[in-house]
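Hello, quick one for you while I still have it in my head. Could you read through the record and tell me how the C-alpha cells relate to the sequence? No rush at all, and the record is pasted right below.
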Amino acid sequence: MNLQKTISKIEKYAQKHEKKSRYEHSKRVAAMCAELCTLFGMDSQLGYLAGIGHDICKNLPDKKMIKTAKKDGEGITDYEKKQTYLLHGRAASVKMNRKFKVKNKDVLQAVSVHVYAGIGICDLAKILFICDKAEPGRPFSTDEYRAKLFKLSLNDMFITILKESHDYMIRKGYEIYPESLKVYDYYMGGNK
C-alpha cells in the first residue's frame, strides 16, 4: 500500500462526502493522531490515515450504514439499529478496507472502534479515540488542556478521555450505549 496515495484518496473522499465542519474536524483529528503517534514512537502516517478516515461514513443513511457495517462480520444489535450513528466507525473501517484497500489491522481497528473504544484495543485505537474527543476544535480542548494531557502516558491519557467522555454523558443525561459501559467498567477496573 502506498500510504501517501491512500491518504490523499481518502482525504479527497472525506472532503467530498463530509460536511465542511466534519471534514475540518477530521483534519484536526488526523493531525493530532500523527502528533501523538510521533510522541509514542509509532508511524505518524498511519495515525494520520486513521484520523482522516474515521468519519467518512458519518452521513450515511441508516439502511446503508447498517448494510456497510455488517460487512465487517460482526452482528448488529437492536440498540445499534435504533442508534445507527454508533455504526459509522465500523462502516468507515469496511469502506477503508474495501474501497481504499487499507489492510493495516491497527488502522482498521482504530477506525472501527473510535466511537466507544473497545476492550483490549491496540495503541493506535487508543490514540484515535483520544484525538476524536480532544482535538483542538473541541470547546474544552485548550492549548493548556492538551499540554497537560500530552504529559501523561498513553494509557493514562486514554483513561482520562474515557472517564471525561463517560462523565459528560452522565452529566448531560444521555443514555449510555451498553458497549460503552462494558468498556468503561473494564478500563476503570484497572485493566490495560
Q: What stands out?
A: The two ends are 31 Å apart (CA to CA). The chain has a mean pLDDT of 96. Residues 141 and 147 are 10 Å apart (CA to CA). DSSP finds eleven helices and no strands in the chain.
